[in-house]
């Protein structure tokens, strides 16, 4: 779709130990490390991107790993669950794999008619492996241990916990073009028809829930996908017209971004498909090299010595 929000682009979270983070997401969960770069505002900290083979929007989970950071707390005004799409037949594989790696998980449950397996990453970030009711034909990234028949295929959904759902729902429906698909008790499922996958946002309304604390093991922001910079700036006008503060366009090397805090308190980003993760290294070598933005290249020799070893 040309002028629409096309589902989730990426989700960014905060971690503690970088090597532990890499081991869980690349080795246990079987995602590809798509980009190894640094936090543009804090170049002594990694910014790690995990996704599919090409870093396709809708598959990208990113982390700022800060060693020794205090643990966050899930609560209102936060994205609290990250859903990955998996084949339903893969649950036995994942249960055995999580047991073998001492990963905390819950038994398989069901919501909106879809079975899902909840698992916590080493910092306590809540993930869900969900068998979607609709076909997911995306090609997964395979590793030696995680083959295609079990692998994650990218995002299924993201869940936001809120004290009052309507203001956030208004952004999703009135600005982003989502529609309410289903409701069960206090969980409201919104979907965009612009894309087939990574298209769902669940809002969970809990009036008395204490606000969450963004720190280790919590989501920093949720990024929604637009085609290019022209569409990005069209959305800037729409959001600014609502009286919400929104940043100027920011060049993130792999996409262009705008940030604003939606009325429910969650930091939203709009991010472009262009130029993509192959802009500074070939697809076959994604995640292999330390890539630095131009303003931090002068620190390369130091950063290569001081950034933690991932493997």
Word description of this protein:
An 8-stranded mixed sheet has the order 2-3-4-1-13-16-15-14. It has an 8-stranded mixed sheet with strand order 6-7-8-5-9-12-11-10, covered by helices on one side. It starts with 7 loop residues before the first strand and ends in a 5-residue tail after the last helix. It is built from 5 helices and 16 strands. With 311 residues, it is α+β, with helices and mostly antiparallel strands. It has one domain: 2,3-Dihydroxybiphenyl 1,2-Dioxygenase, domain 1 (Roll), CATH 3.10.180. Strand 10 (179-184) and strand 11 form a beta hairpin. The protein has helices at residues 18-28, 91-100, 165-175, 229-241, 300-306; strands at residues 8-15, 32-39, 42-51, 60-65, 78-85, 109-111, 114-120, 126-130, 155-162, 179-184, 187-191, 200-205, 218-226, 250-251, 255-261, 267-275. It is 17% helix and 34% strand. 43% of the residues are buried.
Describe the structure using short key phrases.
17% helix; 311 residues; globular; eight-stranded mixed β-sheet; 16 strands; 5 helices; 34% strand; alpha+beta; 2,3-Dihydroxybiphenyl 1,2-Dioxygenase, domain 1
Mean pLDDT: 97
Q: In CATH's first tier, which class applies? A: Alpha Beta
Report the strand count.
16
Q: How would you write the strand order of the largest sheet?
A: 2-3-4-1-13-16-15-14
Class inferred from helices and paired strands = alpha+beta
CATH superfamily: 2,3-Dihydroxybiphenyl 1,2-Dioxygenase, domain 1
Outline the biggest β-sheet.
Answer: 8 strands, mixed
CATH topology: 2,3-Dihydroxybiphenyl 1,2-Dioxygenase, domain 1
CATH architectural designation? Roll
Distance between the termini: 39 Å
Strand content: 25-35%
The secondary-structure element order is EHEEEEHEEEEHEEEEHEEEH
Shape: globular
CA-atom Rg in angstroms: 18 Å
Helix content: 10-25%
- SS field, number of helical segments: 5
Keywords: Dioxygenase, Oxidoreductase
Domain VOC: 7-132, 154-273
Protein name: Ring-cleaving dioxygenase
Organism: Mucilaginibacter ginsenosidivorax
């Amino acid at each position: 779709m040309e002028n629409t929000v096309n589902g989730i682009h990426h989700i960014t979270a905060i971690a503690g130990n970088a090597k532990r983070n890499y081991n869980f997401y690349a080795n246990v969960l079987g995602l590809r490390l798509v980009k190894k770069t640094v936090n543009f505002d804090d170049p002594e900290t990694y910014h790690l991107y995990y996704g599919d083979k090409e870093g396709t929007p809708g598959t990208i989970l990113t982390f700022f790993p800060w060693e020794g950071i205090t643990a966050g707390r899930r609560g209102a005004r936060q994205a609290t669950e990250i859903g990955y799409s998996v084949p339903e037949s893969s649950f036995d594989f994942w249960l055995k794999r999580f047991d073998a790696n001492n990963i905390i998980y819950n038994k398989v449950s069901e919501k909106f008619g879809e079975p899902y397996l909840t698992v916590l990453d080493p910092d306590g970030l809540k993930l869900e492996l969900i068998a979607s009711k609709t076909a997911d034909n995306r090609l997964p990234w395979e590793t030696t241990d995680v083959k295609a028949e079990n692998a994650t295929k990218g995002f299924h959904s993201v869940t936001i916990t809120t004290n009052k759902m309507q203001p956030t729902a208004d952004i999703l429906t009135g600005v982003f073009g989502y529609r309410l698909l289903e409701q069960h008790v206090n969980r409201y499922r919104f979907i965009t028809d612009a894309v087939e996958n990574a298209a769902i946002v669940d809002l969970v309304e809990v009036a008395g829930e204490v606000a969450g604390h963004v720190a280790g093991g919590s989501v920093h922001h949720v990024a929604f996908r637009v085609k290019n910079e022209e569409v990005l700036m069209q959305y800037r006008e729409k959001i600014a017209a609502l009286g919400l503060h929104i940043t100027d366009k920011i060049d993130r090397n792999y996409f262009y971004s705008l940030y604003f805090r939606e009325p429910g308190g969650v930091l939203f980003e709009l991010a472009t498909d262009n130029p993509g993760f192959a802009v500074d290294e070939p697809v076959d070598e994604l995640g292999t090299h330390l890539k630095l933005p131009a303003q931090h290249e002068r620190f390369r020799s130091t950063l290569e010595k001081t950034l933690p070893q991932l493997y």
